[in-house]
Amino acid sequence: MTHSPALLPPEALRYLEHVRVEKRLAARTVTLYTLDLEKLARFAAQVDVPLLRLQTAHIRRFVALMHGGGRGGRGIALILSGWRGFFGWAAAQGLVPSNPVQGVRAPRAPKPLPKALGVDDAVRLAEFSLDGADPWLEARDAAMVELLYGCGLRVGELVGLDAAPGPDTERLGRGWIDLQAAEAHVLGKGAKRRSLPVGAAALQALQAWLQLRATPFA
User: Fold this and answer.
1) Which of 3, 21, 56, 149 has its CA 20 to 30 A from that of 90?
2) Where are the domains positioned within the chain?
């Protein structure tokens, strides 16, 4: 189905013909460009400014309106890309002095928070036992679970922990456990160090694993 452009000035229609014929863009892409330019033309009509007279301040305002209306950052970025292409072409044709969309960015999409382990799942994980498993591995896994859940560590922080500070711990950017102070010193996000209390259950599990680790294999 062919979309019939409305609201668009002759210059915008020339641009659409340019991308269709000279750039040989797919019909679906040309339709999306048309819809995006029509959206821009409606915004321009609302502020009573001709399409080719729009300034960067107008574009930023339109972005804010779209974002406030619930459109996500990724969708806005795609629309801006289409507008930027149009004004870039218009500038090359001498129709506008500069590209008002240049430098305008879409709002950043919020990063989803990592899914936290539920209390029931954490309890089941802590109580899980492999019958007949290697005692060394079982003790190690128990210590890992206790440190992860009891101290609220991230996995990356856990695997970067040494059992005790060594000569290269600081240089290598690693964390360590202070058994006497019952604290974990970890290197978190942004290379920021933080100290966390280590509970009795985690200390007990860690000491049990360290004892087994020091035992020579039979």
Assistant:
1) 3
2) 10-92, 119-214
